[in-house]
Amino acid sequence: MNDPHSYPHRNVKWPPKDQMVIGVHAIRELFDHAPERLIRIFTVKGKGERKSELLESCEKKGIPIVYTSLDDLTKMAGSESHQSLVAHIRGRSFLDVKEFLEKTEEQERVFVLMLDQIFDPQNFGAILRSAECFGVDAVAWSKNRGCDLTPVVAKSSCGASEIIPLIRISNLADSVEKFQKGGFEVVAALLDPKSESAFGFKYAPKTVLVVGSEGEGIQPLIQKKADRSIYIPMSGKIGSLNVAQATAVLLALNNLD
């Protein structure tokens, strides 16, 4: 084919990376919760019970199925983990901090997860999955200081990236101040002598929990702006969890309140 960004024998452009979801589970979750966002499904000829059921469901909903090569799917997704399924989806909307604060002003309890310097798409996706499972009201992050939404993130999140409210921001430190002015307490996850144990920790009714990567952590400016900080006590020989595991623990503990 002459144009490397076109499908064979079709005058259709490859979808932008932020308009693709890959993998059976992630596409199934999107189909179950927001089928109107599915534009078309790209796949290859072949059997597979879960895949066949999903394609049949999509066809019944009138969602077009396009058959192409496995190599094209891999190039399209930028990954080999697509499980021979790539969905072109309608772009989702993102909230800004002001809009979110206005939307939740009358709510008594609001929990926001803020991500700083999470560059690994697998971790980003796993965090989004945990956030959705534990009822987080929104996830905020800056693509300038971490990974942005990609097909791999969507797959790792099992579709949570397309369901949970997302706040994409340009300046995390300024956003921290906006949340604080809006009545939120900002809690940083830090391994620091002044940090409080996460076990028994009581979150404020309106909280922003900030987590950072194992390598870079939370930037110093945000650490200074945080109202409180917490850590997870360890008893094993390995002294830390990766950020996705630690975030899941912190969110689970919050659900025990």
In short:
The protein has nine helices and eleven strands. It has helices at 24-33, 49-60, 70-77, 97-103, 121-133, 151-156, 172-181, 220-225, 243-254, and strands at residues 20-22, 38-43, 65-67, 85-89, 110-116, 138-141, 166-168, 185-189, 196-197, 206-212, 228-231. β5 (110-116), α5 and β6 (138-141) form a beta-alpha-beta unit.
Description:
Helices cover 33% and strands 19% of the residues. The chain folds into 2 domains: 17-89, Ribosomal protein L30/S12 (60s Ribosomal Protein L30, Chain: A, 2-Layer Sandwich), CATH 3.30.1330.30; 97-254, 3-Layer(aba) Sandwich (Alpha/beta knot), CATH 3.40.1280. It has 9 helices and 11 strands. The protein is elongated and about 60 Å long. Mean pLDDT is 87; it is low at 1-9. With 257 residues, it is of the alpha/beta class. Helix 1 packs parallel to helix 2 (49-60) and helix 5 runs parallel beside helix 9. The strands form 2 sheets. The chain has a 7-stranded parallel sheet. A 4-stranded mixed sheet has the order 1-4-2-3, sandwiched between helices. Helix 2 (49-60) links the parallel strand 2 and strand 3 (65-67).
What characteristic shape results from the CA principal axes? Answer: elongated
Put simply, the count of helices is: 9
Question: What is the architecture of the largest domain at the second tier of CATH?
Answer: 3-Layer(aba) Sandwich
End-to-end distance: 58 Å
Amount of helix: 25-40%
Unreliable segments (pLDDT under 50, ≥5 consecutive)?
Answer: 1-9
Give the rounded overall mean pLDDT. 87
Query: Total strand count, please?
Result: 11
Sheet/helix structural class: alpha/beta
| Name of the CATH homologous superfamily of the largest domain | SPOUT methyltransferase, trefoil knot domain
In what order do the strands lie side by side in the largest sheet?
7-6-5-10-8-11-9
Listing every helix as H and every strand as E from the N terminus to the C terminus, the arrangement reads EHEHEHEHEHEHEHEEEHEH
Largest sheet composition: 7 strands, parallel
Number of domains: 2
* Rg: 20 Å
CATH domain fold name of the largest domain: Alpha/beta knot
Relative strand content: 15-25%
**What is the CATH C level class of the largest domain, in words?**
Alpha Beta
